[in-house]
Amino acid sequence: MKCPSNTSTSSQASTSINDCNVAYCEPVIFSNDNISCIACPIGTYKNETGNHQNQCLPCPLGVTTPDVGNTNIANCARVSCNAGYYRVNETHCNPCVKGEYQDERDQAQCKICPQIDGRPSSTFNIASTNWTDCYPLCEAGYFTSTNRSCSKCPYGRYKNITDLSTSCQACPFNFTTVITGATSLLDCKFSICKKGFYRPTSLYIDCVKCPIGTYKNMSTVEMTNCELCPTNQTTLIEGATYQSRYCISNCPGGQGYSWTSQNCTLCPVGQYKEEAALINVCKYCPTNSTTLKPGSTSCIQSNVHLYQTIMAPRETLKVLF
């Protein structure tokens, strides 16, 4: 007797239908477990009887079958669309447009980019093959960063539309903004602070000099504060531009900085420097005043009689200022 359809025996001289337990698949179908038969998948065909999966032959490169279970190479007439494309008809594929992608072959349509951080997203190019090609559409004042998020436009730049721009528009020459995330050219209304100058807050239209004890060695578009001189150092002027040139030893009271020796030296008689003075130079005493000795921190009136008695045999020294 003949075994049921799509089955066979594993050896000759079988005596029972129960021996018909091996898959023996007709054309169109195959077996991947030697027990049951299933249809050849899309993109393959099978025109002989057998029970091995490799008997489903692949279609030639660039074409496929319209469905499963094909018996002849002639069924391989449909164009095969790669990932990033979708099938328009039996002979033509179109690329996925911007904002869509397709990560599978031979699909009838593309997939829409998902929302990212609550924002709609899109792709930079057509024919995208993965959802990771989708980046958020950043609103005005923000640009699309490489980590697939939106970042604020930095100082000195602005952006006035929602798109996939990876940078913001620069302000005109010598102008900047006082905020990040600027959305208009009209925000570029402040001058760039040059070396030695800074803008304390956004309320300041003009730049101001760096105060004593600080410096700034670059022109900046943002509201960068001036840098402090190192510990125990200060500057002699406002608007200092370089640490190495302007930051000098912060002399204690009664001493001023000497450019000749590049050290702190005692203020000479007639000059003084207060203990907590910001100015690192000795100042002349006011009219009709002086100091008693070098290294003074204050002056005294010169019309005051100061008596200093030095004990010596039969002699008293009177010092009058």
From TrEMBL:
InterPro entries: Growth_fac_rcpt_cys_sf, SCUB_EGF-like_domain, Tyr-kin_ephrin_A/B_rcpt-like. It comes from the Eukaryota. SUPFAM superfamilies: Growth factor receptor domain. One of its GO terms (cellular component) is cell surface. This is Tyrosine-protein kinase ephrin type A/B receptor-like domain-containing protein. GO terms for biological process: signal transduction. Residues 34-76, 85-134, 142-188, 206-244, 257-298 form the Tyrosine-protein kinase ephrin type A/B receptor-like domain. It comes from Biomphalaria glabrata (Bloodfluke planorb). PANTHER family: EGF-LIKE DOMAIN-CONTAINING PROTEIN (PTHR24046:SF5), SIGNAL PEPTIDE, CUB AND EGF-LIKE DOMAIN-CONTAINING (PTHR24046). Pfam families: Ephrin_rec_like. The lineage of its organism: Eukaryota, Metazoa, Spiralia, Lophotrochozoa, Mollusca.
